[in-house]
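Database export, one record per block. Field names are fixed; values are copied verbatim from the stored entry.
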Amino acid sequence: MGRSRADQAILSAFGAYVRKLRKARRWTQQVLAEHAGLSRTYIGGIERGERNLAIVNVNRLSLALGDSFSGFFPCKARPARRR
């Protein structure tokens, strides 16, 4: 089953935010991965909006990038309704 448009919009917005913070620090995906304790390919998937992160990994990213946890939720898209 594929993701709804609303769900994909949330993942894409999240990934764009991570990329913005990473680039502001002039870090490569590898450097961010090392600081966050995650793999480089996982970081790439996040930035492309392909990964639906666990809350623990969101916290790791917020700590590594020095941003508030709540700052990682800029998108106000509504999740799909459950049937």
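Remark 1: Residues 5-72 form a domain with the 434 Repressor (Amino-terminal Domain) fold (CATH 1.10.260.40).
Remark 2: The mean pLDDT is 86.
End of record.
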